[in-house]
UniProtKB/TrEMBL annotation:
Protein's UniProt name: Sec-independent protein translocase protein TatC
Keyword Ion transport set for record: no
Coiled-coil intervals: none
Major place of residence: membrane
Database matches in NCBIfam families: tatC
Family listed: Belongs to the TatC family.
InterPro entries in the record: TatC
Oligomeric form and interacting partners: Forms a complex with TatA.
GO cellular component, one term: TAT protein transport complex
Any one Gene Ontology molecular-function term assigned to this protein's record: proton motive force dependent protein transmembrane transporter activity
A Pfam cross-reference name: TatC
Transmembrane feature ranges: 21-39, 95-114, 134-167, 187-209, 221-238, 244-262
């Protein structure tokens, strides 16, 4: 009865419902941001500035892997020659607030998904509404994997490249704090959302907007785009570029398979 009542809601009532979805989601982010506040030392010293340490786990793993592929010490990182400085009076305050909000959004992501699922659920079939747990679990898992990929792969590779790139010995790398934080936030959030591609493709295929044939047709363009992104965010060595490119290509291929399965079920 409740779902039927929602289906009969007017446009303005739907907007009101959406407003409360956004309010509840925002409150969840704020609550998680407050939780993050109590772990500020760990968040900043260990997580945020962890990739600035040459002993960061990613650098060590890449160094060990380089020995297995015959690169010897060529991609081992022993020093990151740069400093991070704050040049704005309120800069550290702004960074502190935005990191808490960003971390709050990441932690609250499953709850936000649940809120939006409840909003669109009345438009779905009864069988589809029963898959809410699967949807929340899979979507959250993909998002968190993407966040981890962005933090442990894209961020260190990008930082290493930018820290070692130099047009002249005269120029010294002194990165602005807000610029550094922006790089981390963008890498982590964009990577997390990119890993949601299979879920997005699933719904677009269900709506008939995207087909498996369309994705296969433009696969070569997707590969080129991924390789370009990998080349931009990584140092100019094959190992780093392949490490970034392969997971992104696998996500795209998973989306193609999901689109094909959805079409097959629709035909059946």
């Amino acid at each position: 009865m409740a779902s039927k009542a929602k289906k009969d809601m007017s446009f303005m009532e739907h907007l009101e419902e959406l407003r409360w979805v956004l309010v509840r989601s925002t409150l969840a982010v704020i609550i998680m941001a407050i939780v993050v506040y109590f772990f500020e030392d760990f968040v900043f010293d260990t997580l945020i500035f962890g990739p600035t340490d040459p002993n960061f786990i990613t650098y060590r793993l890449f160094c060990e892997a380089s020995h297995y592929v015959g690169f010897a010490e060529s991609i081992c990182i022993t020093e990151l020659n740069f400093v991070i400085q704050n040049t704005v009076m309120e800069g550290q305050v702004n960074v502190f607030i935005w990191i808490c909000i960003t971390a709050g959004f990441i932690l609250a992501f499953p709850y936000i998904l649940l809120q939006f699922w409840n909003f669109i659920a009345p438009a779905l079939y009864e069988k589809e509404r029963k898959n809410v747990k699967v949807f929340i679990f899979v979507s959250s898992l993909l998002f968190f994997i993407g966040v981890l990929f962005g933090y442990f792969v894209i961020v260190p590779m990008t930082l290493n490249f930018l820290a070692t790139f130099s047009i002249s010995d005269v120029v010294k790398n002194e990165f602005n704090l807000e610029s550094y934080i922006s790089m981390i936030k963008t890498s982590v959030i964009v990577s997390g959302l990119f890993f949601e591609l299979p879920v997005i493709i699933y719904f677009l295929t269900k709506l008939g907007i995207v087909t498996a044939g369309f994705l296969r047709k433009y696969r070569k363009y997707a590969i080129v785009i991924v390789l370009i992104i990998a080349a931009i965010v990584t140092p100019p060595d094959v190992v780093s570029q392949v490490t970034v490119a392969i997971p992104m290509l696998l996500v795209f291929e998973a989306s193609v398979i999901i689109a094909a399965l959805v079409e097959k079920r629709k035909k059946a």
